[in-house]
Amino acid sequence: MNPKFKLKALALVVTSFMSHSAFSANENASVIRTESGVDITPGLNTALKYDDNIASSNDNKQDSWILTVTPAVKAELLDGNNAYSVEAGLEYAEYFDSSDDNYLDFLLKANGDVEINQSNKFNLNAMYINGHDDRGTGIFAGAGGVQDEPNTYELYSVGGYYEYGARGTPARVQLNAKYFEKQYTNFKSVTQYRNYNDVILGTTFFYDTQSSSSFFLELKNIDTSYDELDPTGDRDSQTQNAKLGMSWEATSTTEGHVKVGYQNKSFDNSDREDFSGIAWDAKLTWKPLTYSQFDFTTGRDSKDPNSFGDYVKETNYGVKWKHEWSDFLASTVAYTFTNEEYTGVAREDDTSSVRVALEYAVTRWLLIKPGVDFNQNSSTEDRFDYDRNVYFIRAEMTM
């Protein structure tokens, strides 16, 4: 499975409460300060949306109005140069025309950044998600019309890093480790073959210049193990990545990073086809004006398929424009394109997504976001072709 898993809306909503942006009613959210020094920030997101293809099906489409409610809270303690935080969130969705699609997701995250001295620091983090895949997505892509409820799963993750080297010196080294596990909790006759875990070990060497930029060499090994032997053959694999990159901090107009390198994915099963080739990841943020921002992204990677095949070579491109028209009104227009080439089966998918949305800061504590998402998936296999459009209005509230 792709270790860069999709966390679904729950994680995105929790993050939106806890992070700050150039334009957000939550930017000035009130913080509850306790005598112990712990700062608590609560928030609430509600949304009403209309989905014209809730099962991502190419025939017999089913539509529904959907109400989602997402409370979230973050507790943070700052102790000198050390920072500790815990975040939690729930998301409940009520489908007006298809109650079998209702879901309740849960997320819990903890993070600790500790600086022993100027040259020694480390991070520890953990996460648990009880989540779902909408009908017709994930393992059941192309089968949403016959699936009777969403696919549910649990994610576990624990990791961190140790870094040696002061920020004021040119060279630093970072040692990384992470354990990630995904366990499906229904449709077990099918999903038992997709339960897996990743053990990820890596090292990054940094060379910092005096112009707010860094060059780095990133080395990473991913050991993927599946709980059950797939009927089509063993899927256990080892993936090695070696990438050279550059990152630069925000200047008056730009910031971003570029990583380009080589990836090798080898299966324990000699009947499966291994992958080796160029991989990259890049993001550039350009601010031609203080109130206008463009984000450009692109990447290429190999990942395990949710269904049949040996691996998927995924290439993606994206662009997003956010413009602040006034102190209270902003707009976002975004486009993403993803190409997936399957090896081991004759299949290739192209997915295009367009988002058009507004943000209106009603008060300090209330942000209204109306918008629409247009999604189109075309495939060499007809059953994976579908269009899905979602019209929404969200309300993000903080104290």
Number of helices: 2
Q: What is the H-and-E element order?
A: HEEEEEEEEHEEEEEEEEEEE
Stretches with pLDDT under 50, minimum 5 residues: 1-9, 16-28
The first-to-last residue Cα distance is 39 Å
The residue-averaged pLDDT reads 91
Largest sheet: 18 strands, antiparallel, barrel
Oligomeric state of the chains in view: single chain
The proportion of residues in beta strands is over 45%
Q: What's the count of strands?
A: 19
Keywords:
4% helix, 399 residues, mainly beta, globular, 2 helices, 18-stranded antiparallel β-barrel
Blueprint of the fold:
Blueprint (H helix, E strand, L loop, with lengths): L7 H11 L13 E2 L4 E14 L12 E16 L2 E14 L7 E15 L2 E14 L17 E14 L6 E14 L3 H4 L4 E13 L4 E14 L10 E12 L5 E14 L7 E15 L2 E12 L7 E14 L4 E15 L4 E16 L2 E14 L6 E13 L1
Antiparallel strand pairs: 1-2, 2-3, 2-19, 3-4, 4-5, 5-6, 6-7, 7-8, 8-9, 9-10, 10-11, 11-12, 12-13, 13-14, 14-15, 15-16, 16-17, 17-18, 18-19
